[in-house]
Structure formats: structure tokens, C-alpha cells
């Protein structure tokens, strides 16, 4: 089976993933998210997403949620989102927050847009419209605190922490801790060298059973264990949700 990195790449390239029927493997999905539209998405085992996935786009897969990731209630995922494994997302979190057009008469979506001439070079003092990004990506082991807002098209790096009520408007580096509005880096969880070594292990590709036997409470002992034992990656099945019809 594909690694999580390969699955992300396939979804980004609009390629179909091989899927496992529910109940066909030893681990079962827990609580995949409900959607507000008849849309499909991929997910792995033991996800628990208590917020809804909403989208205005009807012609593509919504995204993917990796194994052992959870999201509490009161928030939403919007449009195209990829979430890695072992991510912890709090209550009232918005991932891929919606955007409105700001260069016309009104920001309301109820005002019908009628095509007009192109703007003149002298008409440059009204700003530019936000481009709609392709995907919002949370890598692995990302912790997002209650009430945070993640703007669309961003990448939150492996092991990063987003403080409660933060507004994330730019990419977050791996193992960084950010907070505030707009979110700014407070400090790093580990040194750059330790962060690099942790990322190189790709530990999220190991089985949960293997991880439970490793010294995970101390990153130095963990790295020594990985270098000594060289564990193999596990195969994580991929599921495809079955949208509920009206």
C-alpha cells in the first residue's frame, strides 16, 4: 500500500486511490465527517471528525484524512483539505476558512456579478482579489487549539502547534508553535536538528502497535531506538466515504 506522502501526492494530482471496503481490514473507521453536499473523500482508520465538511465545488474529491486524527465539534472543513495522521484539532476550528470577493460593489454572495470591462491601470487603489488556492494541508502530528482559524491554501508543517483562537494566514514551519491574530511563531518545539531527524524517520508510517512499544515520551531515546531497530512501515488501508443521498 502507498505511504501517506504518496497518497497526498495522488490526491493533489487528481488520481484515484485504491480503496478498501468497510470491514475488510482489521481496523475500522471510527467517525468520519459528515458532509453538507453529496461529495466523496478518502480517510484512513480510526479517524474521529465531529465537525462537518462543506464545499461549493462538486467535481472533485474533497480530500483525505489520515489515521488516528480527530477534530472536535463546532467547526468545519471547507473545500479541498488534506489532513495527515495523528492530528489533534480542537473545538470550533475552521480549516480552509471561506473567502468573499472584495473588488466589486458588495462582498455579499447574493449580489449577482455581471461581466464588465477590465480595470484601467489608474484603477489600482481598490486592492486585488484573493486567488482561490488549491489545497489546505495539515501534515502529521499537527495540534490546532480551540477556536483557531486556518485560511485556505496553507500548509501546516509536521509537529506544529497552533494556539487557541489563532488566525493562521501563512504557512507554519514543522515543529513550530504559533499563536495570535495573525498567528506568529512563539518558539520551536525542538532544535532544527532534532526536528529534521524526526521528520526523516517518517514515524507516522509505522503501525500504531509498533509505536506503542517505542520510547515515544523522550525524542532522544526514540531516535536512538529508530536508528538501532530500523522498524518497517505499516500498510494503512484507505477508505472512501459513501455520500448520503437526499
Structural class: alpha/beta
Tell me the β content.
15-25%
CATH first level of the largest domain: Mainly Beta
Mean pLDDT: 85
Number of beta strands: 18
Please trace the helix and strand order, writing H or E for each element: HEEEEEEEEEEEEEEEEEHHHE
Count of separate structural domains: 2
Physical arrangement of strands within the biggest beta sheet: 2-5-8-11-14-16-17
Helix count, DSSP H or I runs of 4 or more residues: 4
What share of residues is helical? 10-25%
Based on CA atoms alone, the radius of gyration comes out at 20 Å
Describe, in plain words, how this protein is organized in 3D.
- The protein is of the alpha/beta class and 246 residues long.
- The chain has two domains: 1-97 and 129-189, Hexapeptide repeat proteins (UDP N-Acetylglucosamine Acyltransferase, domain 1, 3 Solenoid); 191-232, no CATH class.
- It is built from four helices and 18 strands.
- It has helices at residues 4-12, 192-201, 208-212, 219-229, and strands at 42-43, 48-49, 52-54, 63-65, 70-71, 76-78, 81-83, 88-89, 94-95, 136-138, 143-144, 149-150, 155-156, 161-162, 167-168, 176-179, 184-188, 239-240.
- Strands 2-5-8-11-14-16-17 form a seven-stranded mixed sheet, with no helix packed on it.
- A hairpin with a 4-residue loop joins strand 16 (176-179) and strand 17 (184-188).
- The longest helix is centred in the C-terminal third of the chain and has 11 residues, at 219-229.
- The radius of gyration is 20 Å and the shape is globular.
- The relative contact order is 0.16.
- The model has no long low-confidence stretch (mean pLDDT 85).
Amino acid at each position: 500500500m502507498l505511504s501517506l506522502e504518496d497518497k497526498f501526492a495522488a490526491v493533489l494530482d487528481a488520481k484515484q486511490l485504491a480503496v478498501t471496503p468497510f470491514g475488510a481490514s482489521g481496523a475500522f473507521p471510527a467517525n468520519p465527517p459528515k458532509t453538507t453536499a453529496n461529495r466523496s473523500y478518502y480517510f484512513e482508520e480510526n479517524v474521529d471528525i465531529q465537525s462537518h465538511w462543506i464545499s461549493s465545488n462538486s467535481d472533485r474529491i474533497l480530500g483525505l484524512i489520515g489515521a488516528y486524527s480527530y477534530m472536535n465539534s463546532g467547526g468545519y472543513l471547507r473545500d479541498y483539505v488534506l489532513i495527515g495522521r495523528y492530528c489533534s484539532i480542537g473545538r470550533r476550528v475552521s480549516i480552509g476558512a471561506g473567502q468573499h470577493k472584495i473588488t466589486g460593489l458588495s462582498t455579499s454572495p447574493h449580489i449577482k456579478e455581471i461581466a464588465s470591462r477590465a480595470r484601467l491601470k489608474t484603477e489600482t487603489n481598490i486592492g486585488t482579489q484573493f486567488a482561490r488556492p488549491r489545497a489546505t494541508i495539515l501534515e502529521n502530528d499537527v495540534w490546532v487549539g480551540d477556536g483557531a482559524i486556518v485560511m485556505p491554501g496553507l500548509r501546516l508543517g509536521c509537529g506544529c502547534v497552533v494556539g487557541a483562537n489563532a488566525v493562521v494566514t501563512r504557512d507554519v514551519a514543522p515543529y513550530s508553535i504559533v499563536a495570535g491574530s495573525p498567528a506568529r511563531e512563539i518558539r520551536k518545539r525542538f532544535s532544527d536538528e532534532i526536528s529534521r531527524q524526526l521528520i526523516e524517520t517518517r514515524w507516522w508510517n509505522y503501525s500504531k502497535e509498533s509505536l506503542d512499544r517505542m520510547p515515544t515520551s523522550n525524542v532522544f531515546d526514540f531516535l536512538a531506538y529508530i536508528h538501532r531497530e530500523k522498524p518497517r512501515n505499516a500498510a494503512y488501508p484507505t477508505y472512501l466515504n459513501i455520500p448520503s443521498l437526499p
